[in-house]
Specification:
Blueprint: H1 2-5, E1 9-20, E2 23-34, E3 37-42, H2 49-56, E4 64-69, E5 72-73, E6 83-86, H3 98-108, H4 116-126, H5 142-156, E7 160-164, H6 172-187, E8 191-195, H7 199-205, E9 208-213, E10 216-222, H8 230-236
Parallel strand pairs: 3-8, 3-9, 6-7, 7-8
Antiparallel strand pairs: 1-2, 1-4, 4-5, 9-10
Length: 243
Amino acid sequence: MVEKIGMETILKVENLYKNYGSFTALKNVNLDFSNNIITGLLGPNGAGKTTLVKSILDLVNFQKGKITINGKDSTDPLSRKDIAYFPEKFYFFPFYTVEDFIKMMTQLYGLPREGLQEHIEMALEKFRLTELRSKKLGKVSKGQMQRAGLASIYLSNKKIMIFDEPFSGLDPLGIRELKDLIKELRASGKTIIVCSHILAEIEKICDQVIIIDRAEIKFQGAISEVGNDLEQFFLNNTTGGNE
């Protein structure tokens, strides 16, 4: 498992502290993320998961510590060129069509134009969006919106991909396709972080899990160390969130 397939550390968090006034959001967080690894980031609501992800993305300033992304400090804008982020609540301009949205995202990712339309066609087919290509985002369902976002993430080809509650809004077929996609990305050498409350799905796809509770890391290790019941292991290592 994680101890066998982990390669180089591509994302490292060292001695991270984050306070909002007198409220401690992160306390002495130390983590390593390697390529070819799917990591499940788990914790109760308010435990610090969102603050950790925002710190990695340089969306919040932390008081102490360091985050290194592919050898670059997280405060260096160039470090974020290696990251694709899929938020929990995925919305965009409702007047964009599905295809126009995906095209725009590929431009934001800086993908070369040569052969781009061919890749877009492949993504539309892969995520069951071909018949929806001309439909405006304001008219699609939540699950269809999720699939459009996943198509853009897939095309980004970034080294690090962070998914925040990606199973939300997907039907059983969509969930299975997403799990296959995440495994496919892992096989291509990506570093995958999945934040989710759906422990049953995390248990099926992740190589390692991280449990954060009340701003502190309670566990980081291979899924094989958890045993046969991730839910019970999670409950044993948490006391509830900060909210």
